[in-house]
Amino acid sequence: MSGFAPHIVFLLVLVSVSLSPSVRCLGKERTLGMIKPDGVSGNYTEEIKRIIVDSGFSIVNERLTQLDKETASAFYEEHSSRSFFPDLVSYMTSGPVLAMVLEKRDAVSDWRGLIGPTDAQKAKISHPHSIRALCGKDSQRNCVHGSDSISSAEREIKFFFEDVVSDDIASQHDEL
Ligand SMILES: *[C@@H]1O[C@H](CO)[C@@H](O)[C@H](O)[C@H]1NC(C)=O
């Protein structure tokens, strides 16, 4: 029987080598990316989605939706005591937003890197190739949102997609 052992070891090596790409998939992470009202109304959606895909993300779900005062306030509830909160809510309800579930390895930090600093004016100087440098105006009207941690990503994905059965085609017709 011991004569078979090398064959078994060889087989196990073969199996684990052929499995490794799917095992690596387990390292993928999801984050919430959102194109804010000025980005959508400014016709940046297609260009931003091209940048997203070219940067190695998969857009696994998306939803064009109009936030109302109540939903925008709930989304940003951690900022509710800040002086800029009423402005933030009126900006975020000024037109439709496109929420997207973005997936890749290290999606949370890579998406934050791709969108650049919060203040779009600073982004234009320090991160000229970032998305906020492309279409943001200032630190509030900064064109795109990204979850700031893995736990925020989980909360924010649930916020936009908990009712949506994972079906990209159906969700595209979910607007307004
Ligand atoms: C909107 O953007 C697309 C792609 O980025 C471009 O081809 C198109 O000409 C733009 N449309 C308008 C009205 O600016």
Automatic annotation (TrEMBL):
Domain Nucleoside diphosphate kinase-like: 28-168
Catalytic activity line of the entry: a ribonucleoside 5'-diphosphate + ATP = a ribonucleoside 5'-triphosphate + ADP; a 2'-deoxyribonucleoside 5'-diphosphate + ATP = a 2'-deoxyribonucleoside 5'-triphosphate + ADP
Signal peptide limits: 1-25
GO function terms (MF aspect): ATP binding; hydrolase activity; metal ion binding; nucleoside diphosphate kinase activity
Active site residues according to the UniProt entry: H145
Annotated residues for binding of ATP: K36, F84, R112, T118, R132, N142
Record GO biological process: CTP biosynthetic process; GTP biosynthetic process; UTP biosynthetic process
Uppermost EC category: transferase
Pfam families in the cross-refs: NDK
Keyword tags: ATP-binding, Cell projection, Cytoplasm, Hydrolase, Kinase, Magnesium, Metal-binding, Nucleotide metabolism, Nucleotide-binding, Signal, Transferase
Major subcellular site: other
UniProt-listed Enzyme Commission number(s): 2.7.4.6
Cytoplasm among keywords: yes
Subcellular localization, as worded in the UniProt entry: Cell projection, Cilium
Family of the protein in this entry: Belongs to the NDK family.
Protein name: Nucleoside diphosphate kinase
Gene label: LOC108822762
